[in-house]
Amino acid sequence: MTGAMAPTKPLNSNDLCDxxxxxxxxxxxxxxxxxxxxxxxxxxxxxxxxxxVAVEIHDETARLLAKPADEDASDSR
Length: 77
Hints:
Number of strands: 3
Number of domains: 1
Radius of gyration: 15 Å
Distance between the termini: 55 Å
Oligomer: single chain
Helix content: 25-40%
Largest sheet: 3 strands, antiparallel
Strand order of the largest sheet: 2-1-3
Strand content: 15-25%
């Protein structure tokens, strides 16, 4: 085993925050391949501590600000 990690898979609607059950937008991979899922709120709350111990942080919170594709198409009409 080389110790290389597989790329993190995108989060989906089945991924829920481990703290409150809301949709998860952040996956934190810890040493030993354990992972935690957080909503944007709980990610902000715990980010400083997690950054010290995480092997990887996969952050998709930018999706909260993205416009849906349908909305972009209707703007051009």
